[in-house]
Design goal:
single chain; alpha/beta; two-stranded antiparallel sheet; binds nicotinamide-adenine-dinucleotide; binds zinc ion
Length: 374
């Protein structure tokens, strides 16, 4: 049942393998691609405390006999781990494991572990290879593919990092069975993003098949992850360093990041939940500006709501930002060039576009009406 999606970057091409049961095959697959024990590379495993409990023993068992495990670093779970302090500690741990240029780092975890371990691999001995083994839905459909790695600083999220492509991605969809439902839903916001930005057929498929997918039907899950990864791979190959098309992947994110910043990047609002609200806002703004036909935004919101995700700013509990605060926070997003907001809007479901033509005043007016319940 394994499906392979190639990421055809010249000189840095790699495969994303998707399907259930890949963790058990990891040792075999890694030895085949990189060389077996003794002649092959040593591996250093990086994971977090939650994932270690449920999946680390199986990974170690799978690797044993195939490759030499140089050591395992188990980091605290959570976004706070993506910081300079943990990066320094991890880099030293990997050096103590005596990982050399030809060796491998394996990132077993969600986007936090993938981003941090990937960045550590990028700077260790000026760059060693790494394998992504994403364990959250978000990481399987988004963060494990495309080579963006990095950490957060008090100045903002992901402002320090490097482009460092993995050498292999093993997305074992069976591992998602232990993922908490709220995290599963948050990851779904990134899945539906692909349909909305570029594939109306996929969105229609999701409208019909999201329910079995969310209850871990293996075929539905594998199809959704594969289609998402195919789209991400295509976009990354066209625009690796995000000067054009890759920006489309930020659909819902400029609004979403502002909401995350306001709520403090904590459990009040997960990234995917912010993206879900942001995506609905992007469609409602597109409709308000006359870019897409009436009822489009309502269809998008109905689907996102059916998954159990928030669709309005007012769905966030506690104190809410006002329109001008939102616009100010949107202005601090990384995707600002020359002081102008870059927005991803839509002409229809499956057709998003990048624009710098909407003024901050227009966005603020729209948000004021939104927040007033209009
Ligand atoms: N590099 C990129 O292109 C890119 C893209 C999108 C997001 N990101 C980054 O990804 C991060 C978010 O990733 P995330 O949502 O995976 O967060 P995460 O890594 O914190 O994982 C979410 C939670 O689920 C737990 N978990 C993960 N897999 C599990 C499993 N199989 N069973 C049980 N528990 C499991 C984790 O321990 C954690 O508590 C953010 O830092 C974001 O900036 C990066
Ligand atoms: Zn995202």
């Amino acid at each position: 049942m394994t499906q392979t999606v190639p990421v055809a970057l010249p000189g840095r091409a790699y495969d994303v393998l998707i399907g259930p049961g890949l963790l058990a095959q990891a040792g075999d697959l890694i030895a085949k691609q990189f060389g077996a024990a003794k002649v092959g590379p040593k591996v250093g495993i990086v994971t977090d405390s939650n994932v270690a409990k449920v999946h680390l023993p199986a990974l170690e068992a799978s690797l044993r006999g195939h490759v030499t495990i140089a050591g395992t670093a188990i980091l605290p779970a959570g976004e706070a781990t993506k910081c300079f302090r943990e990066l320094a500690a991890l880099s030293e741990r990997l050096l103590e494991m005596k990982l050399e240029r030809g060796d491998l780092v394996i990132a077993l975890g969600g986007g936090v572990i993938g981003d941090l371990a990937g960045f550590a691999a990028a700077i260790l001995r000026r760059g060693i290879r790494f394998v992504q083994m994403p364990t959250s839905l978000l990481a399987q459909v988004d963060s494990s593919v495309g080579g963006k790695t990095g950490i957060n600083t008090p100045q903002g999220k992901n402002l320090i990092g490097a482009f460092h492509q993995p050498s292999l991605v093993l997305a074992d969809t069976g591992l998602l069975s232990t993922l908490p439902l709220r995290e599963m839903r948050a990851g779904y916001a990134e899945v539906v993003k692909y349909g909305l930005l570029g594939d109306a057929t996929f969105f229609r498929w999701l409208e019909g098949n999201a329910a079995p997918m969310m209850t871990h039907d293996p075929a539905a899950l594998a199809h959704a992850v594969r289609r998402a990864v195919e789209m991400k791979a295509e976009i990354v190959v066209r625009d690796e360093t995000e000067t054009g098309d890759r920006m489309l992947l930020n659909l819902g994110h400029t609004f979403g990041h502002a909401l995350e910043a306001f709520t403090g990047y904590g459990p009040r609002l997960l990234h995917g939940e912010g993206v879900a609200i942001g995506t609905c806002l992007a469609f409602r703004l597109s409709e308000a500006l006359g870019h897409c036909p009436p009822q489009t935004a309502a269809r998008v919101a109905a689907h996102i709501k059916a998954i159990g995700l928030p669709t309005r700013v007012a769905d966030i509990s506690g104190e809410l930002p006002d329109a001008s605060t939102m616009v100010r926070l949107m202005g601090q997003d990384k995707k600002v060039t020359g002081g102008r907001l870059t927005l991803i809007l839509a002409r229809s479901i499956g057709e998003a576009f990048v624009t710098r033509d909407v003024t901050a005043e227009q966005v603020e007016q729209f948000l004021a009406a939104e927040l007033a319940g209009g």
